[in-house]
From TrEMBL:
InterPro entries: Cu-oxidase-like_N, Cu-oxidase_2nd, Cu-oxidase_C, Cu-oxidase_fam, Cupredoxin, CuRO_1_AAO-like, CuRO_2_AO-like. Residues 32-146, 159-300, 381-520 form the Plastocyanin-like domain. This is L-ascorbate oxidase homolog. Coiled coil: none annotated. It comes from Gossypium aridum (American cotton). Belongs to the multicopper oxidase family.
Length: 550
């Protein structure tokens, strides 16, 4: 009885700290982060494991669940995990990036506490510090719909997570040394599916099993560092049903381009001859194509997979045309009972337009990337902490870049923070003047990707925006010499990272932060700093400011 009382008191305490609804279920996890030897491409190397696993453990949640993850850092370096796509409503304290959190020091722990409020879909978590993502530490986070919310397809026979990504055999410290010395990472050494590389014709144990005449759901996410990947399954069509938290119009595809940081949910019907089939992931837009495979086996099937793999598409025009086929399912309900299409984003007036032009340059002889002439650097004091303690002027300046980029080929290194007006409806244009594809992500939000087009953006291009059924998502790709337009309401108070998902570019400055402050300073808009938040930099040892109230 005493233990039961303690458990209830603990849950109530956590609910108060996180600001979540006490009636929603809790999921508790304890994760030990360690080094370990892995050989995903046949070469032994140092990897980052979570509870001894590579990739890390999967979190299986339901919409509105409260997730509590106690992370013990047993590495020799500071460490953070970020939860890509989780919106952390009113709670950027849990975002796990260096602009919001002090890193977890070696030999210590930190407990993340967040709610997947009004979200469904397929997401990933991964390290945000240094180049730890190149060594592992990543995994999947599933958020299922609540039982009372209808899903626009029959329940599948089973669900499978497929984490695809490029991979380097050099350690994360060596790769980080390359970047610190001014060198790029170069091409990846291979591609992995769920932490393993597979070759055609080489004996592989089946990764997944399907029974004939049943349908299966595959959650496919690109957890890599550099390369977009094409995903396909030998002899099978892919029915796209969900993308980054949104139900989509259910089109059939031979293959899907999955850019870095993106997650798709697809249905696959086991309607072929019962035998083995190859699941294939191969790099796109790189000079040398890297390919990996995994086996899908039909139950009681006989026969090896054909060594003739389905071909990958060629060129980025194919990928652009595929993007244009993605549509929001207007009649489906997502995390809430109301249909997705009841939110008419196309009827909202734009109050601000921000053009972000990515660029590459050298500063003091070393490679750097940035937006609008500024290459971001993380100060010793996290931006959110400096702001919360009213010490922002001692750590960074707001709006060091302008909404309309100036013509410059140089980069200056400094913190890059844009001040956003709370609840304004904003248009962001990502312009890519380079010859390589970009992939961008915004923490804390989903946005409507209303256009991706070649050329240079101008106001007249708004005539071609999809203002009806663009997919609400948290990443968008920008093709070479092209632009992408997104629309969103900055209604989630906090400090939020806008970044390249190509991690060498992120590490070398192609990121910024959106500061979204509520003028009310009320718990209705943002939660107080959690009691367990470590303090570092100039706020270390300071008393916390007066808490917000209703």
């Amino acid at each position: 009885m005493a233990a039961e009382v303690i458990l209830k008191l603990t849950i109530c305490f956590l609910a108060l700290m996180v600001g979540v609804q006490g009636g929603d279920p809790y999921l508790f996890f304890t994760w030990n982060v360690t080094y370990g030897t892995i050989s995903p491409l046949g070469v032994p190397q140092q990897g980052i494991l979570i509870n001894g696993q590579f990739p890390g453990p999967e979190i299986n949640a339901t919409s509105n669940n409260n997730i509590v993850v106690n992370v013990f850092n047993n590495l020799d370096e500071p460490f953070l995990l970020t939860w890509s796509g989780v919106q952390h409503r009113k709670n950027s304290w849990q975002d796990g990036v260096l602009g919001t959190n002090c890193p977890i020091a070696p030999g210590t722990n930190f407990t993340y506490k967040f709610q997947v409020k009004d979200q469904i879909g397929s997401y990933i978590y991964h390290p945000s510090t240094a180049l730890h993502r190149a060594a592992g530490g990543f995994g999947s986070l599933r958020v299922h719909s609540r039982l009372l919310i209808p899903v626009p397809y029959p329940d599948p026979a089973d669900e499978y997570t497929v984490l695809i990504g490029d991979w380097y055999v050099k350690s994360h410290k060596i790769l980080r040394g390359f970047l610190d010395s001014g060198r790029p990472l170069g091409r990846p050494d291979g591609v992995l599916i769920n932490g393993k590389g597979g070759k055609v014709g080489v004996n592989q144990e089946p990764l997944f099993t399907m029974e004939p005449d049943k349908t299966y759901k595959y959650r496919v996410c690109n957890v890599g560092l550099k390369a977009s990947l094409n995903f396909r399954i030998q002899g099978h069509k892919l029915k796209l049903v969900e993308m980054e938290g949104s139900h989509t119009v259910q089109n059939l595809y031979e293959s899907l381009d999955v850019h870095i940081g993106q997650c798709f949910s697809i249905l696959v019907a086991a309607d072929q001859d019962p035998k083995d089939y190859y699941m294939v992931a191969s790099t796109r837009f790189l000079k040398e194509v890297q390919t990996t495979t995994a086996i899908i086996r039909y139950k009681n099937g006989k026969g090896e997979a054909s060594t003739e793999l389905p071909p990958a598409p060629i060129g980025w025009a194919w990928s652009l045309n595929q993007f244009r086929t993605f549509r929001w399912n207007l009649t489906a309900s997502a995390a809430r009972p109301n249909p997705q299409g009841s939110y008419r984003y196309g009827a909202i007036n734009i109050t601000r337009t921000i053009r972000l032009v990515n660029s590459v340059s050298r500063v003091n002889g070393k490679l750097r990337y940035g937006f609008n002439g500024v290459s971001h650097t993380d100060p010793n004091t996290p931006l959110k902490l400096a702001e919360y303690f009213n010490l922002a002027d001692k750590v960074f300046k707001y709006n060091v870049i302008k909404d309309e980029p100036e013509k410059t080929t140089t980069l200056t290194i400094q913190p890059n923070v844009l001040n956003m007006t709370f609840r304004n409806f904003v248009e962001i244009i990502f312009e890519n003047h380079e010859r390589s594809l970009q992939s961008y992500h915004i923490d804390g939000y989903s946005f409507f990707a209303v256009a991706v087009e070649p050329g240079t953006w101008s106001p007249e291009k708004r005539e071609n925006y999809n203002l009806l059924d663009a997919v609400s998502r948290h990443t968008v790709q920008v093709f070479p010499k092209s632009w992408a337009a997104i629309l969103l309401t900055f209604d989630n108070a906090g400090m939020w990272n806008i970044r390249s998902e190509i991690w060498e570019r992120t590490y070398l400055g192609e990121q910024l932060y959106a500061s979204v402050l509520s003028p009310e300073k009320s718990l209705r808009d943002e939660y107080n700093i959690p009691e367990n938040t470590p303090l570092c930099g100039i706020v270390a040892g300071l008393p916390k400011p007066s808490p917000y109230t209703i």
